[in-house]
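tokens incoming
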């Protein structure tokens, strides 16, 4: 065993995980002059040898292939239900693994290395709810907005030039000069595809009509240029037709990988990145003060890897003079806490783990969005996908490589509509995304459906602000190389006894069907394959949703809140009953915020850096 002495290695902080939370906080602490060791279980996705890298990482349209790239993917197989009978009705269920594929990434940048790059601001109510829960005014929406402005750089996303010229518009948003650039899809992409133009025009007009007051909708669409992050729209909880801001720079993926590499280059004596370091436990003294971590050094050690290694790895230790910060995400952070003796007493004892702190909330409160697809087969291929192979040999890739233009510069979204499932809701809860591809959820080989079929339109209905919080992450064993057991306990098995979540998803399906009705009448759509024309009644649609829903924003398993109410963290991210130990990742939220979790995680990374620096000035 090799041990690193805090005085000899000079690290003020040890940060575990380089995703949206960990990468953000590590970079910000190093920029503030602190010394940071950033431990990442995977390697650099652009430095790994393997099939289709680096294009899978870099090309926006290749994000489905990045999530299945064998060199960087971590495959979790999760349960949606306790009931075997109910679980096996899901066609995505894999009997061999007793679960449904839940893609994660073991690479520098965490899941920002394979996500769809969509950055949508959370709702202000999400932040105010945390402030109300904790009595901490720093969580108020007005204060949280500044963290978004600190990280986002939208200077390279000017207004549509043609719209500005015709209407004399000024930019709708100040060009925040942060480190995370966001860009928009070029609207001219659809001009050469008549079916796409008809789909966008017809669906948008129908959406305006269905949501009421179409003139107001059009006026705000022009003012905001469909930007969901326009502060005026955020403040008013607005809904309507939107585009999806992407975290790209020059139409190339950007995330915390680029952030930490940039900071490490500028401050080489402040930030050290240690790849292939699987953290196995937190080290404590007798007063439950975190001293650092123990980890295994070696490649492919975690058994979620597509090709896990049989090598034992080299046991090492790293010490933090100030604090240890866990940022492994909603699955791995509670696992690491439990392996370190922090969690529900009975669960720990059942695996022979000595209980350091009985903290029942660890791993509980697991939440996600519900998603489901309405999959339509078109009468003919999309023109923009003519001859597409989704690799570096086709004309679409050459267009992207030469000019950073074309369909590969997008994430595949043709149109987005944000709406309320019921008029009485205070904030919109449905995000309906029209995707030009065949997509019905995650299962091994799912990305091949996208590359093999060029004549599909999949409307993905995402239900936010879900009520169900009955899911849990528990240990399978005391072996840190094993994945934890994950069960979301969907719908009837969960805590939403009113069935509100299920009914909301059904409303979303009915809404997107209305948007595509004219395309079916005009034979632009040949057939709705899922749910299928035979599935019409609300009862039939509920069954379809129960059997086909999925999610990919797991959150809330180490929530901020009082210990006696299931909380794990204080409002400044410190683990109850410990000192010098914090959590900064998707697990910290009491309720899952907004539509896409990554924006909120980036923001808490910035907020946590402020809190840490204030406590260790």
């Amino acid at each position: 065993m090799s041990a690193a002495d805090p005085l000899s290695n000079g690290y003020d902080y040890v940060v575990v995980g380089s995703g949206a939370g960990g990468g953000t906080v590590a970079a910000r602490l190093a920029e503030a002059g602190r010394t940071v060791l950033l431990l990442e279980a995977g390697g650099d996705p652009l430095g790994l040898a393997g099939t289709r890298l680096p294009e899978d990482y870099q090309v926006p349209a290749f994000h489905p292939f990045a999530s299945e790239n064998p060199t960087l993917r971590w495959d979790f197989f999760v349960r949606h239900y306790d009931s075997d009978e109910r679980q096996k009705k899901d066609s995505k269920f894999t009997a061999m693994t007793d679960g449904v594929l839940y893609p994660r990434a073991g690479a520098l940048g965490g899941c920002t290395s394979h996500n769809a790059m969509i950055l949508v601001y959370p709702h202000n109510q999400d932040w105010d709810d945390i402030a109300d829960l904790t009595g901490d005014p720093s969580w108020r929406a007005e204060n949280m907005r500044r963290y978004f402005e600190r990280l986002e750089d939208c200077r390279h996303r000017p207004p549509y030039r043609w719209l500005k010229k015709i209407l004399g518009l000024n930019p709708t948003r100040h060009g925040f000069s942060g480190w995370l650039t966001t860009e928009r899809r070029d609207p001219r992409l659809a001009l050469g595809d008549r079916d796409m133009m008809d789909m966008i025009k017809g669906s948008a007009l129908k959406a305006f009509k269905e949501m009421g007051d179409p003139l107001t909708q059009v006026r705000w669409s022009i003012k905001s240029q469909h930007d969901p992050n326009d502060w005026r729209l955020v403040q008013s909880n607005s809904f309507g037709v939107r585009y999806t801001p992407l975290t790209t720079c020059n139409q190339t993926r950007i995330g915390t990988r680029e952030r930490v590499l940039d900071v490490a280059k500028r401050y080489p004596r402040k930030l050290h990145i240690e790849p292939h370091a699987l953290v196995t436990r937190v080290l404590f003294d007798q007063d439950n003060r975190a001293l650092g971590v123990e980890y295994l050094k070696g490649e492919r050690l975690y058994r979620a890897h597509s090709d896990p290694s049989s090598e034992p790895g080299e046991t090492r230790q790293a010490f933090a003079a100030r604090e240890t910060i866990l940022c492994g995400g909603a699955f791995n952070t509670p696992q690491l806490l439990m392996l370190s003796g922090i969690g529900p007493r009975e669960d720990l004892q059942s695996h022979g783990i000595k209980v350091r702190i009985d903290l029942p909330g660890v791993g509980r409160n697991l939440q996600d969005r519900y998603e489901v697809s309405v999959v339509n087969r078109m009468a003919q291929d999309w023109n923009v996908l003519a001859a597409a192979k989704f690799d570096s040999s086709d004309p679409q890739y050459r267009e992207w490589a030469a000019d950073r233009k074309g369909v590969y510069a997008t994430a595949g979204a043709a149109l987005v509509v944000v709406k309320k499932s019921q008029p009485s809701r205070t904030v919109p809860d449905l995000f309906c995304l029209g995707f030009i591809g065949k997509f019905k959820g995650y299962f091994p080989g799912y990305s091949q459906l996208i590359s093999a079929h060029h004549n599909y339109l999949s409307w993905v209905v995402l239900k936010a602000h879900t009520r169900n919080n009955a899911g849990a992450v528990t240990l399978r064993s005391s072996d840190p190389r094993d994945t934890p057991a994950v069960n979301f306990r969907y719908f009837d098995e969960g805590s939403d006894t009113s069935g509100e979540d299920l009914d909301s998803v059904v409303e979303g399906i009915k809404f997107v069907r209305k948007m595509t009705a004219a395309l079916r009448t005009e034979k632009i759509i040949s057939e709705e394959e899922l749910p299928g024309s035979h599935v019409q009644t609300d009862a039939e649609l509920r069954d379809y949703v129960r059997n086909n829903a999925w999610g990919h924003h797991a959150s809330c398993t180490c929530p901020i809140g009082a210990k006696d109410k299931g909380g794990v963290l204080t409002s400044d991210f410190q683990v109850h009953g410990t000192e010098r130990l914090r959590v900064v990742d998707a697990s910290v939220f009491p309720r899952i915020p907004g539509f896409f979790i990554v924006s909120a995680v980036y923001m808490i990374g910035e907020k946590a850096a402020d809190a840490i620096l204030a406590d260790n000035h």
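note: Residues 109 and 257 are 4 Å apart (CA to CA).
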